[in-house]
Amino acid sequence: MLEELPVPAALDALVDELNDADRQERIELLIDMAKGLPPLPERLAHFKDEAHRVPECMSPVFLFVELRAGQVALYADAPIEAPTVRGFVALLVEGLDGATVEEVLLVPHDLADRAGIREIVGMQRAAGLPGILRRLKAMVTRASISQPADAETERVSP
Amino acid sequence: MADDTYVHPEVLVSTAWVQEHLKDPKVRIVESDEDLLLYPDKHIPGAVMIDWQGDLQDQLVRDYINAEKFAQICERAGITPDTTVVFYGDKANWWACYAFWAFTMFGHKDCRIMNGGRKLWEAEGRPMVRDVPQYPATNYTVGASDPSQIRAFRDDILAHVKAGRPLIDVRSTAEYTGEKLHMEDYPQEGALRGGHIPTAQSVPWSRAANDDGTFKSVKELRALYEQECGLKPHDDVVAYCRIGERSSHTWFVLKYLLGFPKVRNYDGSWTEWGNLVRAPIAKGPEPGSLAS
Asked: Which among B120, B118, B115, B98 is positioned nearest to B208, based on CA atoms?
């Protein structure tokens, strides 16, 4: 589906899996992904504040981005009672963890469509999802500007 | 009328009542949610899902489905005109109230809300299942109803404001003042202008709900709408929000819990009014007037 873009293989595989599934299977996959979102590491759980909240989203979604040796490490939290949003966040976390900055920035904004999420939940309900991706890209951009040297240093350190 | 009970307490059922009636053939439990993945994950045993968007709204015209389609939805869900339909859902029952309102528009007589919704049911550790039930199809004949008693259109609103009747804006403060054009999660449900309908008072819907999703007590609701807002017992009231879902919650509170004789929901709400050419708008924290 995304073969023309340098999308990380992990994200590509997840999008394909969602797309190949029929409606019922896709619903179950999304529910499972939402449930499988790993909890925030202890060191980040204390920082669920406005600075890490996605302001575009009415549900309290928190994103954390770290750069290690040029690779994006992604952590997130979203309410269990908002499985659509949480499932989409889980897709990003699972699909983009370890990606390069460039790969994250090239993820298409209609990812929710491509993954068939909009087909399940409808246009109105899917409308907020691109905002999460936009926010993630902004955070990754900021991290790459503020820490390019660190990333290089870390790459060579053991 | 007792001071400590809702005016029409029968429209509200508790989670315990629902659990006792899980196998009652005269009762159908209906889940209506903001998030469509909640029901497929788990729900109250025997509950069916009716979606405000996919089921109750017409997919072409911005309106509700017709009576024939409504009958089909009921028939599919095993609902007869005599069935007690109990609605519950996420978000403190916004969509449950919306579905209740839509069912009432179609003349279904016995509608109830499960106080506390999905959140309270889950918090109390009551049973939930993944199985989607199948009920034998029924024959549903849509009864007589007068939607104009509970639904207001834009022209009604202008007449209502000119007549000096009360209007309640149930959106968040930032939406009311015009600082924000839409709830940020819903960019496609925005409006070109920010603010509120002149003379509307701001009472965010959530002020009628407790943290556990249940409704506030009658005493608290009276203090809010009668003392603070100045509504009189015989007032003809209209509530609106952005697309009519949060205002269904307030509509339910005013009509059934406080017993106002005529309460209408303006489902066009801000997504219509804030886009309407030459519609008067007030900005800022004051209700404002038509002249301003």
From this structure: B115
